[in-house]
Each structure stands twice: as structure tokens, then as C-alpha cells.
């Protein structure tokens, strides 16, 4: 059964925005954005998905569909009839499930290096790396290093791995992989006219800008793509000011 998720609410503006974290982190991954956000125009809700952060002990199936139901339950608990959704990586797939389940409630979507609606087919070697990350911190480090373009400092990589291990349940982490990588809903969202902003990183080796063009921009007629020249997969931490400015400019137009 869906239930409201642990969350922080920032701002009192009339435009509500649900913010969904990535596979490696809980809602704290957005902490670097919060001091610079427009809290007069927007009201942001940063959630912890089941198995993460304050929701580590919450039992569930740990699927992107279940996560979308929980987001809707959170919006209901906060009495938000209409909202936008910002999703980072795995959170971008979850945002699309929210759109499918409640199309009349979603104003717009923002995907930050977001997983496409087709999921992410992985070859055998990549699957072993990603699946093993649930149990092996070295696998997590290799993935984070690869997806950020092998260009970020070792201490940051190590801190990101440490946070991901501490903030997530390993079984939930592993089960989410099956769901975000293996779920394909693109036939259901193709042609959806909801405004969409896709933020990509030029150094992202897993979901590079060309993947965004071949998926998100093909399936959403009102989608636009912006590429950060100085970021990989982790724009909220790599280019926080640019990400806030870009996102809020888009939200203000929607």
C-alpha cells in the first residue's frame, strides 16, 4: 500500500515541486542546491524513497512504480492537487511513472541525467558491475567514477560511496536496479505533451546527451535538452548554481 514518504519541505510558493533522488543517494544529495532556491515562488518537497535515508526501514517491493505511488501519497498528505516533478537519474524514471499515474496533476517534469522511459539495457559485464554494487563498495566507486567521466577527486568519490552505503538498504538498492534498468514504458509516454526539461552532463559516460536526444527528445514533443559542459552524471553536486538557475527558469515558464 502506498504511503507518504519522509521528506523536507522548503519554501512557501504556490508552485509545488516534488524532488526525487538518484540510486546512490537519499534526499541529502540535494543539500547543495537548497540555499540558492527561490522559496517565494516555489515549494519544494525532497523525499526519501523506501529503503533510503529516513525510510530505510520501510518494507516494500522497491520498484519505480511503487515509488511513484508513494510520491502521489506524499502529495495527497501535503494537499498538493498539482505539482511538478524533478528527478535525478533513477528519479527521472520515477517521475515518468508519476506522470502516467496522474497526468492531470503534473505541471512539468525536470530530469537530471534521467533514466529514459525505456530503461537502461546493460551488457553482461555492466550488469555484473551494477548488480554487485549492492554488496561491494568498490563497484559503487567504479560506477560513480565512470559516470562522472573519470575526472572528479578521489576524496569526493570516496565520500559519495560512503554516503550511498550509509543511506541505503542493500536489498532495496539491488531491487531498484532491476526496476529502473529493466522497465520499459516508452510506448505509454510517447507523444505526451507535458513540458519536459532534460539536463545532461557532457562528461556522463552512462547517460550522455546523445542518449537523451534519442529517447526523451524523441518521445516528448515539448522536451528541451540543456547540457552542462562541466558536469557528468551528478549535476546537483558538480554545478549546483547553474542547475538551480536552469531548473527554476524552466519551472517558472510552466
How are the SSEs ordered, and which strands pair?
Layout: E1 7-10, E2 15-20, E3 42-47, H1 64-77, E4 83-88, H2 90-101, E5 106-112, H3 124-132, H4 137-147, H5 154-167, H6 170-182, H7 186-189, E6 196-201, H8 209-214, H9 216-219, E7 223-228, H10 235-238, H11 240-253
Parallel strand pairs: 2-3, 2-4, 4-5, 5-6, 6-7
Antiparallel strand pairs: 1-3
Helix pairs in contact: 1-2, 4-5
Structure description:
- By secondary structure, this protein is of the alpha/beta class.
- It has a single domain, classed as Rossmann fold (3-Layer(aba) Sandwich), CATH 3.40.50.1820.
- It is built from 11 helices and 7 strands.
- It has a 7-stranded mixed β-sheet, with helices on both faces.
- The longest helix has 14 residues.
- The chain starts with 6 loop residues before the first strand and ends with a helix.
- 46% of the residues are buried.
- The model has no long low-confidence stretch (mean pLDDT 97).
